[in-house]
Inverse folding.
């Protein structure tokens, strides 16, 4: 049996039809067949973890079938959700303030008064 059972299952999973597909190269090119390298070059995929956008056409679907173990295919909704999650993860967070000095009574009273005013 060539390939894993998961890859066989993944190739049969129906993907919601989308007019545009986002294709990301996730496996490296060294050690792949020349035909696969030429197919990826035709899809403008030259480096790992780069994403390109293509219209859904029968010829593109045929190329994706040929190199399905090297790429990940996403629809517009999947791509937008992934990008949004990455932006939320990279969003700047408020700084963490660490004070190594114990608070004085005057400072803590001022903070209590400011909190009560709000």
């Amino acid at each position: 049996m060539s390939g894993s059972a998961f890859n066989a299952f993944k190739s049969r999973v129906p993907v919601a039809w989308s007019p545009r597909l986002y294709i990301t190269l996730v496996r490296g090119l060294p050690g792949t067949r020349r035909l696969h390298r030429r197919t990826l070059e035709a899809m403008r995929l030259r480096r790992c973890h780069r994403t390109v956008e293509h219209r859904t056409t029968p010829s593109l679907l045929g190329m994706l079938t040929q190199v399905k173990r090297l790429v990940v295919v996403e629809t517009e909704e999947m791509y937008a959700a992934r990008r949004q999650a990455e932006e939320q993860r990279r969003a700047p967070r408020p700084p963490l303030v660490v004070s190594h000095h114990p608070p004085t009574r005057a400072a803590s009273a001022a903070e209590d008064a400011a909190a009560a005013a709000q």
